Amino acid sequence: MALPALRELTESARVVALPLVTRFRGIDVREAVLFEGPEGWTEFSPFAEYDDEEAATWLEASVDFGWRPTPPALRDRIPVNATVPAVDADSVPAVLARFPGCRTAKVKVAMGDQTLAQDVARVRAVREVLGPEGRVRLDANGGWNVDEAEHAIHALAEFDLEYVEQPCATVPELAEIGIRTKYMGIPIAADESVRRASDPLTVAEAGAADLLVIKVQPLGGIRRALQIVEAAGLPVNVSSALETSVGLAMGAALAAALPSLEYDCGLGTASLLAADVSRDPLLPEGGAVAVRRVLPDPALLDRYAADADRTAWWLARLERCHALLAERA
Question: Residues with Cβ < 8 Å from 19, sequence gap 6 or more?
């Protein structure tokens, strides 16, 4: 597909700043650019700290979703997990209440400003709310070294973990922690080692993970993500990058197109937003989200519009990333 002209993106572009219910990933507000293509609205929302080279791949995904039909859907609803930020244990019930019907919870751990004791208390609280039938998975975002990961996983294993996502930062470390903790029978998942790697297949080729966490924008779009899944030959879970409901619809379309979907997906994160861009946001209902396009509401786009400085910053970033995609082409 030919890259649309920059004008085709910017003439409908709207920059929004959405408040979060709870501080997440070090931010209180999620910013994004939305624009409309022939297939519908799409989203460009790489995190602010990412450089233009990395962010350009997110734009490639945005263009793919806005300008090309989505692949055929094999399912019309996607089971999703609840996402529990690094909150105090006492706050866990209120967080989980925002994810009605979800039988699985992903719990953030290994935050630099918190202790293992706090992680244990948070995970214990999640297990108590979900009960023995619920599924609990951890996401460390590469925050532990191998020794720390081994110690932490051992301390948290009593809560019957479904898997541990990105316990360590590098592929060799993931391979090592998988060996050290094999006796516990807890699978290791790779996220950053896929979406932020120069070669997203390295972790699979090294045998360093039991499953992959796939995020559609960082991998360059639905079709590219499907190619990676097929080449990796591992089970996958489709997750979000804390997008608006427009961006979550892109992830849901990817999950719908996968031949196999063994895990509840991390696509319920609109519940972490205190506001969204649609009157009909992509929120979990009965533990699942629908596979559908999301239409932004003009009044909400106005209400949550970023200020002039942030709008200019994002539009300049969009222009630079578009130029990089033109060079790649």
Answer: 28, 29, 273, 274, 275
Instruction: Judge whether 1 lies within some domain.
Output: no
pLDDT band at 131 (very low <50, low <70, confident <90, very high): very high
Domain-embedded: residue 50:
yes
Percent of the chain with pLDDT over 70: 100
Both 41 and 165 in one domain: the answer is no
**Res. 26 pLDDT band, cuts 50 70 90:** confident
| pTM, to two decimals | 0.95
What is the domain count for the chain? 2
Does the active-site annotation cover 182? no
108 is catalytic: yes
Catalytic residue, from 127, 215, 223, 322: name it.
Answer: 215
With a cut of 80, say whether residue 1 has pLDDT above it: no
Q: State how far Cα 128 lies from the chain centre.
A: 25
Which listed residue (14, 108, 137, 317) is catalytic?
A: 108
Same domain membership, residue 32 and residue 107: no
Q: What is the DSSP letter of 16?
A: E
| Percentage of residues in the chain having pLDDT higher than 90 | 94
Same domain flag for 88 and 50: no
Which range marks the domain in which residue 172 is found? 77-290
Query: Do 197 and 59 belong together in one domain?
Result: no
